[in-house]
Amino acid sequence: MAVSGLDQHALDAQIASLLGPDPAPFESLIAQLMSAGNEARGHAEQLFNICRTRHGDTLVLKLVHTLRFSQAVEARSMAAVLVRKQLVIWPQLSSQTQASVKEQLLLCVQQEQVKGVTKKLCDTVAEVAASIAEDSQWNELLPFLFQCVSSDTSQWKESALMIFGQLAQYMGPQLHPHLPTLHAVFQQTLAPSMPGDVRLAALRATSSFVQTLETPQDRECFQDLLPGMMQTLTQALDLHEEATAQEALEMFIDVAGTEPRFLRKQLVEVVGSMLQIADADGLEDATRHLAVEFLITLAEARERAPGMMRKLPQFIGKLFAILLKMLLDLEDDSAWHSAETEDENAGESSNYEIGQECLDRLANSLGGNTILPVASELLPPYISDQDWRKRHAALISLAQIAEGCSKVMVKTMNLEPVVNMVLTAFQDSHPRVRWAAINAIGQLSTDLGPELQENYHQRVLPALVGAMDDFHSPRVQAHAAAAILNFSESCTPEILTPYLDVLVNKLLVLLQSGKRMVQEGVLTALASVADSTQTSFQVYYDTVMPYLKAILLNATDKPNRMLRAKSMECISLVGMAVGKEKFGQDAKQVMEVLMNLQGAQLEDDDPITSYMLQAWARLCKCLGQDFQPYMSIVMPPLLQSAQLKPDVTITDADDSGNDAIDSDDESVETITIGDKKIGIRTSVLEEKATACNMLCCYAVELKEGFYPWVDQVASILVPLLKFYFHEEVRKASVSAMPELLRAVKLAFEKGVAIGRDESYLKQLANYIIPALVEALHKEPETEVLSSMLESINECIQTAGVLLDGGHIKSMVDEFKQAITASCTRKRERAERTKTEDFDAEEGELLQEENAQEEEVFDQIGECLGTLIKTFKAPFLPFFEELIPFITPMLGKDRTPEERRIAICIFDDVAEQCQSSACKYYDTFLPFLLEASTDADPDVRQAAVYGIGVCAEFGGTKFQPVVGEALTKLKELISQPTAFTIDNIMATDNAVSALGKICEFQRDGIDAAQVVPAWLSCLPIRNDLVEAKIVHEQLCSMVERSDPQLLGANNQNLPKVISVFAEVLSAGNDLATEQTVERMVNLLRRIQQTLPPPALASTWSSLQPQQQAALQSILSPQPSC
């Protein structure tokens, strides 16, 4: 690598100078590495990298020398960081260099006086130690640290403790043999007589080690350190050292999140102290917020200490009261009332924001059974108080806890008082309280829908319409209009349509006379109402659309950007609701406007960009293939948005002086991972996610019309399957994969794939499917995992036999891994049920989490079913690999859903592979027979279906179990509850299975008894697939005059005819068209061949309605 502007000779001279005995050139290089100027820093980095590549030993020794001897604090600080970054070349360094570095670092620890440098130095020592720990290459370190911590020098104690704290994070388990010694060290250094900095370092080290303790015994040994840890915090507060107290609180938060069980024995004391801090008005807000964060983190620590906080006396009431009090820190800001700006948060303090956020988190973590009784006690005095802030706080808190309490709130006894309280506040004298009431109704509509809408629409909708008349407070008007969106999202057209006249007329009045903020709310409301009522909105179209188009055409100045964007959204949703025929003419004019906007230079923060992406997609949904001509305009900016790079900033977590990440910037989300703080600009991610969703939407709507774009879109979206910055981007990319394959397949089928042969579909499948399978392996979210499996299944269906053995093997391997990982997660949850604090509410939450796992199993079952149907017997070697993973799911200790899925997989194998699957009967048939009387009807249905399949294809392999199968099927069919709504599908499948035994296993049964018993169960009416199969079988048996079916002297013929009558009167529901025709022909043959007395006798045994149905069918049709 050559540095620009230098020949080799000059470069060598410069390197020699840098690494020579004079420290000045090297310190100058370090200074340049910290330069704000890109050119100087870039040049320095090139030189530094050359030194590392060619003279690694010399460079590292030079860095350590600078760290030890430089007079410049910045140079020492940077040298400490740079030494740490050279660990990548540590194995290449000579043993002498390695030994020297270790020795010099320990001397630096004792010598360094500047705290900032000491911190970086200690980090470096710990990281070096961790990187070489496995080879036991630093035997001097621990004796050195124990010597420092026992010395009389406070600074040495602090440094040693800092290193211990870091070592715990890097290599905690490896230090467990030293726990007794470390315990003594921490006990000594946490003592009140120690200087504050030493105690804080001791607290950090203790907290770090506590988080590595794996057994209850180890945690027990460290229990007696907790009072000293708490004392470090309280002493800092007593001395008004709040910065120290805040650091201490952050450490307690880490312990609460990682190892909450450590706190259990002294929980009352610890939580009591934290509640006092949270409620102490004299402390800084930041200190109080950290105490609250500790308490909320404990409440959220469900995986490690489920139910622990619910059982703590009075904790929830006290914390809820503190959070309510925080909501009172609100100024009645004039900017809020003027409604000239979007700032609906005007006057809100950081206390208010924390109160809001933590009420939401508290309710979500502890649930409605715990939170609602506390809210019911604390909120009524607030809602009736003279102080508007208290009334406001009550309503805000109600909105915040609604999601977490939704299951309990939706019960009428709980919902009635809530709705009464909120609707009464619609008439409050203070506009901010009225706004909070509307806000609560909006949130309740979202969280408690559709129950709220079904039971209270007659009260809520008129209240919202009334609130739109609040001309004294435009912000209240706007919020009332916007709340219509929340209400209508979970609302059926039947509920909403009767209110349309009043709603639309009111909204149009406001659209003409309201402030801009009100108009924006109106457009949101109109859009949501149209979307919810669909074709019922057609009658208002001619009245509404001119207003919407006027705004789109005329609201062109900067202050009206959002108004115009909302009009775009509203037009596209109204268009979708009323359909292409009604919207078609206006759609062209709207698209002309959008095309002009697309070509214009919009500012980066213009909301129209993202609204336009979504509007185009809705117009495509509405117009279908007629949208095709616009794709060349729509796609380029959409592809550009989908390719946006995440705006990520990474800094040291403890570098408070670094302002690269603005913590007050709401568009930036920050997360801390280890010692790094990562800032991500969410607006960029949201635009990217919207674009990816729109690409998927176009592929769905245009089908083969999307073919020209498939190449480009696949190359963008396939890498995004592993885009871990944003879940929605991954979800959209996952959903698009099968759509891209479908678009190509349809293009070939319809002859529009110009210039390509069908090998392109195989090529695309080879690109997409392995990428999906690989992404499956790394996906962290269970919900996205299920979506990925669903997409893989759809891809298999489309690609079919184009898949090769390598693809199938990688899929099967991944399914095995996914089953194993899911079982591990369920096992870990099962362990939580054994903890002393586990309770019923925790059990409900656990069931919800396990339900997601069952969705994963279900999707794996669907994938395997598709593979089996596609490849049949050649797939069996892969199935055999899966058997050890499937059979455990059949156990009685597994959930009904797991058992059902496992049985369905075998059912598919038995049905699709027929005689080739007989070798698995010994393994699976006993499970099927046992499961045919399972308590769960879905398991029974799958089991008896499988018994029928095995009877059909198993031949002699099924004969040994015929008797047991008949007993089980008879038991199921003859149950008193066999024909209830829950059981009827299982019963229908049992009847079908019985029919297959009659048809294919007749030699092994008493046919004279079993066949008429089967006939007596007909017709089957609920499982329409099985009904068609069974009734075709009946038809075939009658056609061949099956003696056991018809009985002696045709005694069963009336029953056969009555079954035919019922099947025929159901049209094509219970039989195929061909079977219906065959039945009619059979009935005519019977009519012609049966002696009149026998025919009359048969006829008289039918029900009157059956006689009428047959009369109609068999009557001669008038000739044309």
TrEMBL record:
What Gene3D superfamilies does the annotation carry? Leucine-rich Repeat Variant
Ranges for the TOG domain?
Answer: 365-603
- Write down what this protein is called: TOG domain-containing protein
Could you tell me which PANTHER family the record lists for this protein? IMPORTIN BETA (PTHR10527)
Q: Which GO terms describe its cellular component?
A: cytoplasm; nucleus
Q: Which SUPFAM superfamilies match?
A: ARM repeat (SSF48371)
InterPro entries named among the record's database cross-references:
ARM-like, ARM-type_fold, HEAT_type_2, IMB1_TNPO1-like_TPR, Importin_beta, Importin_rep_4, Importin_rep_6, TOG
Q: Which GO terms describe its biological process?
A: protein import into nucleus
Q: Which domain of life is it from?
A: Eukaryota
Q: What is the lineage of its organism?
A: Eukaryota, Viridiplantae, Streptophyta, Embryophyta, Tracheophyta
Segments forming a coiled coil: none
Q: Where is this protein localized, as stated in its record?
A: Cytoplasm; Nucleus
Whose protein is this, by species? Adiantum capillus-veneris
Q: Where are the HEAT repeats?
A: 418-456, 924-957
**Which keywords does the record carry?**
Cytoplasm, Nucleus, Protein transport, Repeat, Transport
